[in-house]
Amino acid sequence: MPPRPLALDLSRTSYVCQSCISTLRNAKTTKPSLQPWPARYASRAAQRPPLRAPVRTERPRASPTTSITLDGLEERPGETEGVPEGSLNVNYFQEGEGGEMMKLRDSEHFAKLNSGLDVEVETAIGDLEKKMVETILMLKRMESAGDKERADIMKQFFKKTLRDHYKVKLGPETEAFAALHIPGFSRPRHRLVANLNRFLARDSGVKGGEPKHKDIFDCWKYYSSARKSLAGSWSSVPKEVWDYLWMVLSWEGPENPHRMGHVYILAKDMNAAGVALRESQQLLAIEAMFIEGWRDEAIEAWKKGVVTLTTTPDMFKGYHELGVRMLSLHGDTDRAQRAAETLLKSAGPPNIRILIPVIRALALKEEKSEEAWDTYQNMRQMLGDTIKIEDYDEVIAAFLATNRVEYALQAFVDMMFSSAIDVRGKTKLPMAVSNQFFVGKWLKRLIGAGDLDGAYKVIVYLQDKGITASPIQVNGLIGAWLRSETAEGIEKAGDLAWNMIRARLNFVHMRHRQQSMEVPVKFYDPCGPKPRRSAADGEPPFHCASRATAETFSLLAENYCSRNLHKSLEELWGAFQYSEIKTTSFLMNQVLRSYTQSGEPNKALNLYRKMTQEQNVSPDAHSFIALFNTLSVNLLGTRSQAMMEQDTALARQHFREMIDRKWAFDSPDAYHLLPRTILFSMLKAKDYPGMIIAVRAMNLLFDYTPPEPLLIELASGTMTLRVKSQRNAGRIMEGAQLIESLIKRSRVQLHEAGLDIEKLPKEVIEAERRHVLENLVLAKAKSMELKPEELEPLLQGAARDMGVYDVVFSEDLDKIAEYRKLDARERDQEA
């Protein structure tokens, strides 16, 4: 800490006792043996560590000092005129360069040297402060007189003036922050504090009084880095800087996800710096302390603030609401109830929904579950018609989280029916509740809200009451668990799905038993994992009565395929054969993908033929994508010439199969992925005639034109433009240059034909891309050394193999209409 100015010390010692005064007055007649008191005091003051003079010189000069003499001690002409008898006269001195003491003129001279400011500047500052106070009082009188509109206009004018001329930062509620700076940290080792100062001096900081995510992120980054340096001198941080940091770091909103952690650290630092927190800041600091894990300390601080933090109605409300929430989470239900009761009995309008944390805390304790229900009933009665669906959801979630399903069901019934229907304690539920429609609405709401465990508890509870949930809702729960991508969620989804599969297999088995009494009476369980929940876990195993559907198998198949669990998928496929459910193309596609990923493409092809020919499964675009992916060019890094020739024949066969089948595109992804897979497969197999025929056929049947990025990928031989390796970047650059040269050559031809190349219609641009792709294919096929007259027979042969000769060469309109998969209007809607 820098030493205090001497004037401040003297103001504390201006009193002189009467005995000393009488002794000093007798000094005229009696020569003292000791140095008079004022002289001794002045000498001690001169011995104090000198302060640095505010005026820079070549040699540092000491700060001015003072001495005190008492009027009447001796007569001095011209010095005692106008001075009241018994008053003190303060003399100011300053040490010169040679060490001699120089007397200053007056207090104004002393103030000038000590502060570094001119007396006129200090006077102007005082006048400015006086005028600002007068302006504020004037604006308040205008508001009280009813001229609030004019007062607001003048306020906005002053705020704009400050913002424009002095670059003032505005916080919430237009709180002004002028030039912010932390002094005393100018050395090179204070680099982190300098970074914080540069952030505080930003003109762009916190525009409009609402911090953005970047403002909060930068503020915490620079402040957290500088904390260690600032801790050595917290007192150097101005109050305005603390206010600004609090305004930014405590901002409530999605742009500040770590708000409570920031507030906790900042409040600790402000407490260490001796900065007094406002009441609202203290409440927020207590909440942050609780959330950061210091629960006992936060509750103790909350208890101590019962007097200081409840001075206003708003603070009274916030204080008790915070207490209810903290105590409820901490399990102190008795104190939480007392705090809630105090709040509800207060004079102001009560927040009745503060009882929800109390209900949640009471429901956690089995012995107080009935008390939790009574609290819910009281809250519902007090809210009356103002109760919202969200309030019911909170209560239902609280009871489900503690396995109080009966109470949750009663709350949902209260929400759904205006008339009172009591379902608690009844073994048989009324018809309005015991139906799949009612259960389905509840499960759909729970799954949509993300309460998956609660939905599962509802399924188990209602099945015990004789109500079987619809497979659609159960499949929805399984899908939600799988989409969570958590180990626990995937495990629960698998258990429930196989439970449904067993129910389906048992149903099929019992149906066979009815048809033939020779079938032994037993539950058929050919495969699948056993339920993981058993009686050893404290509850009997759950056997789901909802039977599996094709969607159940599809959900599991997709999950197994994406996780490369081929053995599990084979087991699932075996169970599916016994389920007597019609095979869907989706399930077939997952099995095809799994066989291909496991390196068994022949099994994938055999399965496709069996499903489409024997079981009449209609393939879709994803089925043909899976077929083309079985080619060795898509599975192996190196291929022999024989394998290349085999891939060429299979690719043309798959293309013919795709054209002959009746199907349509079901998604924009499939619309772009299928042509891409076909072109790359043929390019890798070096089937250049087949590529040209495929482009022409897909244009006529799919309305497909390859986009420019695909042309670059085909030219460079890479499957993606996103890989940033050096080798891939070089190939992409070469491919882009080749495509650019082909396009320029095409544009020259179009210009010679009389077309304006700056305003080409869409049809011409699409035709140009197809033409560029064919030229690219011919450029790739230079090694074949084909002559133009030799290319045409190869194209015709490829068209016959691919089943599109009448489409490409004859352009038979009937054939085109028969094979067409998607017209232009539908393609645009899908895309």
TrEMBL record:
UniProt region (Disordered), positions on chain: 42-86
Gene3D superfamilies attached to this UniProt entry: Tetratricopeptide repeat domain
Family to which the UniProt record says this protein belongs: Belongs to the PPR family. P subfamily.
Stated name of the protein: Pentatricopeptide repeat protein
InterPro entries the UniProt entry points to: PPR_P_subfamily, PPR_rpt, TPR-like_helical_dom_sf
Lineage start: Eukaryota, Fungi, Dikarya, Ascomycota, Pezizomycotina
